[in-house]
């Protein structure tokens, strides 16, 4: 069995961003040599997500508006977590609902997606370097 591990680094210039990381995960899969198995892709930070959905800019704006309605960034004083001196309580909540990780089947050396599926890094407290873990296991 092959076990492959790689960390991908991102630094979003804005507080919130959605970044399509599919091609980087595909590159990891090629490097791994795995033909049949599973690929796990997870955010290594508790204010960021990895999720699978459509690469459609209107949908991404809809996500952003929806998440801001659920957990608005302002006023930061509305959150108990921010009494620690942080201002990112909303980012923890946005990460929770958008999820920590994506798992994709690997079949014949390819990510075995459904129609329109792409992998995204969701950033909710950006403007600093953060990591995504790619773990691929199989043969
Ligand atoms: Zn925090």
Question: Which SSEs are present, and which pair or pack?
Answer:
Blueprint: E1 2-10, E2 17-20, H1 22-32, E3 37-43, E4 48-53, H2 57-70, H3 89-98, E5 101-107, E6 110-111, E7 118-123, E8 130-138
Antiparallel strand pairs: 1-8, 2-7, 3-5, 3-8, 4-7, 5-6
The protein binds zinc ion.
Zinc ion binds next to loops.
Structural write-up:
The mean pLDDT is 98. This protein has 139 residues and is an alpha+beta fold. It contains 3 helices and 8 strands, in the order ββαββααββββ. It has a single domain, classed as YjbQ-like (Jelly Rolls), CATH 2.60.120. A hairpin with a 2-residue loop joins strand 5 (101-107) and strand 6. The protein is elongated and about 50 Å long. The protein has helices at residues 22-32, 57-70, 89-98; strands at residues 2-10, 17-20, 37-43, 48-53, 101-107, 110-111, 118-123, 130-138. A 5-stranded antiparallel beta sheet has the order 1-8-3-5-6, covered by helices on one side. Bound molecules: zinc ion. The site of zinc ion has 4 residues, from loops. Zinc ion binds at residues 81, 86, 88, 92.
Short description:
With 139 residues, the chain is of the alpha+beta class.
First CA to last CA: what distance? 5 Å
- Largest sheet geometry: 5 strands, antiparallel
Spell out the CATH superfamily.
YjbQ-like
Secondary-structure element pattern, one letter each: EEHEEHHEEEE
Cofactors, ions, other ligands: zinc ion
Q: Helical content, roughly? A: 25-40%
Q: What is the CATH architecture term?
A: Sandwich
Give the count of structural domains.
Answer: 1
Task: Output the number of helix runs.
Answer: 3
The third-level CATH topology is Jelly Rolls
CATH class: Mainly Beta
- Give the uncertain stretches in residue-range form: none
* Molecular shape: elongated
Oligomer: single chain
If you average the pLDDT, what whole number results? Answer: 98
- Beta-strand proportion: 35-45%
């Amino acid at each position: 069995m092959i076990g492959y591990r790689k960390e991908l680094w991102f630094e979003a210039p804005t507080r919130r961003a959605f970044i399509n990381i599919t091609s980087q995960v595909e590159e990891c899969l090629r490097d791994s040599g795995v033909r049949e198995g599973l690929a796990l892709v997870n955010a290594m930070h508790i204010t960021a997500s990895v999720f699978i959905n459509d690469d459609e800019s209107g949908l991404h704006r809809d996500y952003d508006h929806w998440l801001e309605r659920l957990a608005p960034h302002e006023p930061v004083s509305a959150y108990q977590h921010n009494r620690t001196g942080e201002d990112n309580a909303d980012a923890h909540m946005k990460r929770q609902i958008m999820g920590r990780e994506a798992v994709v089947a690997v079949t014949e050396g390819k990510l075995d997606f459904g129609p329109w599926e792409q992998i995204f890094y969701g950033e909710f407290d950006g403007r600093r370097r953060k990591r995504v873990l790619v773990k691929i296991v199989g043969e």
